[in-house]
Structure formats: C-alpha cells, structure tokens
Amino acid sequence: MAFPAHQGDDSDDGMDEFMDKFTEQKYKNAFNENNWEEEFDKVPMFMKKAPEEIDPATHPDLACLQSIIHDDDRPLEEQAKSLKDEGNEYFKEKNYKRAVVSYTEGLKKNCADTALNAILYTNRAAAHFHLGNMRSALNDAVAAKKIKPDHLKAILRGAQCCMELHNYADAVQWCDEGLKVHPTDKKLLDLRAAADKQKRAAERDARKAKAKEKKKRSEKEALLAAIKERGIKLLEPDNPRRRGSDSEDDDADKDPVAAMATLDLDGFSSQEATGARVFMDDQGVLHWPVLFLYPEHQQTDFISAFAESSCFIDHLCVMFGEELPPWDTEQKYQPQNLQLFFEDHEKEHLYQVDLETLLLKVLQHQRCFIKSGTPSFIIMVKGSEFSKQFLSGKKVHRMK
Hints:
Keywords: Repeat, TPR repeat. The chain is of the alpha/beta class.
C-alpha cells in the first residue's frame, strides 16, 4: 500500500518557518526578561495596585474596564455591585480613601437591593474606621443596622467605634443587641466583656474625680474662710482695686471664690516658685508663697511656704547667714543691716516692717493687700546711697 509522500507538508513546513523566525529575531511585543514584573503590572488582571489616575493612553485595558463598571446604562443593582467590588479592591490595597469614594458612589445609585446597600454602608464604615473617622464609621454602622438589624459586621463595627470614642455604655448596648440574634458569637462576647470592663473603670474614675473635686472645693472654701476670718485682703488680678476694703462699692461682699481661683504666682517664673499657692496645714496655720525684691541689684528671692506664725528675721538669717549671695559683692546684705517694706498698691505708699514682726501681723495691716496670692516685700540696706535715692520723694510709714 502506497502512502502519499510527506502528507500535510504544507502546514508543517509553514509552522516550522514561523517558529524559525524566533531564532533570527525576537518577538517585538514580548515581555523583556529584565522588566517583566513592570510589564505584568500594566495588565489589569495582574496589577498589584491600581493607579490613582487612569489615563486611557497609558492603561487602555484598565480604562475600558472602568468604563464598564461605571456604565450608567446597566441596571442600578449591577452598577452598585461593581462599585462595591471596586471599593473592596481599594480596601485590600489599604487605599481607604478611594474605597470610601467607591462605596459612596455605590450608595448613590439608590438601588432596590437592601442587602447590598447594607454591605456598602458596612464596608464604608470599615474604611472610615481605618482612616480614624470614628464618627462617620459609627454613622454608617447605624445606617447598615437600620437596613438590616441582624447584620453582624455592622453591629461589631458600631461597638468598635463606640469603644474608640470611649462611649463604653453605648458599646455594651450595641453588643447586647447583637447577642440577642447572635448569642454565641465569640467576637461579640469578647467585645462585650471588654466594653463592660472599660465602662466600669470609667465610672470608677468619674466617681474618684467627683470626690476629688468635692474635696478640693471643700479645702478651698475652708481656706477662704480662714483668710476672711483673719481679715486678710486680696487684690483681684484683673482689677487693681483691693478686695475687702471699706470703699463705697463694698468689695467685701463679692464672692471670694472667683478671686481665689487665680491665687497663684502672677508672672513669676522662678523654677522653685512654679505652682506655689497659699495652703493651710493640719494645725490650721496658713503658709504663703512670699516674694522678696532687691531693687538695688534687680534680684529676687522666693519662699514657697512662709508660715504666718514665722517672723521675717528667721528667714533672713537663713538667706543671709554664713554664705552671702554672689551678687552681694560688697557683703552689705547682712540681717542686721536690712530694711523691709511692703507697698500700698492703692496709694503707692511704702510701709517699713520691723524684722521681728510675724507675717500674719503684716498681712492683717489695713493697708496691706495681697496681689495674686503672693505677698511681696522690698529689701534694702539701710543707710545705703541706693536706699536714700530709692526712698526720696516716696511717702514712707513705719508699721505699728
């Protein structure tokens, strides 16, 4: 039996000739082995991340797919689902802003598929959650739960948002409502336990803060009563007029709590003085922050707790004892050489104080007014040239 020679030779020879071309020249549209990953990333199916802006000239295939997704001629349900899928892809890429845009566009379609709308709200809530937009995420969870009350993901997301917003009671309520329809869900049970723990802790902290504030208020009222009882006069920081005077406006009748709220150091920035305030010890003795001014050398000293039962010489002997301050190069500031004055802030008169006088007695003087809760005194070397010049032209009284 004879067979025809080389049956099918035309097709075989043609294929061989076509394949032989690859040995002579490369296929022009083939992927280059050096940049094949970049080339693959241009193909929509293999893209790791979609570009922010899609240029039809650069990404024609992707532009075509996007036009299909956003084709307004398709049924609304299809359009909304495509936008949901698009948002999911952005979400997987952690591009939460673009995901929010896609889910929002899907919701704008107002399709009749309530289950799909619930998913769009829930997914947008998740995207908002990852962006830190807790209020928006909570609003979307509420909207999803309204459409589908038993939607577990919406319930979980709502409870998580309440936790982040420190609304622990609301978080417990979300969990309780969810457990009615999902009684064995572990995530809900764990979240409910965590929310209840935080709720109890917040309530405990609120009780402590309230008790602390009550105690602070009580101590402040007791302190004000002690100051008033001693007849000590306070100057309002924002008003140079004295408090508790015999003026026609009768400042003594004003509520002292408003003035006491600002009893701290008025502009004095010494590190030792920061936060110092008048206080009353367990024995009922007042301790005042006291400022000493040395105008000759433009220096200051600050005593954070000067007991009202102490006299000035006690502190001055410590301050100018064995070791004199470095700015006193002439060593003139020794206790026996010092003069102490307080200023009448209303009349701008000076009152000289005997160094053996108790602080309380000075503060009770009818012309002594305490500014911003800090009594201040001027110290100079008696008989010095500076002292003479400083006191000249000023009306000086000797405190009795």
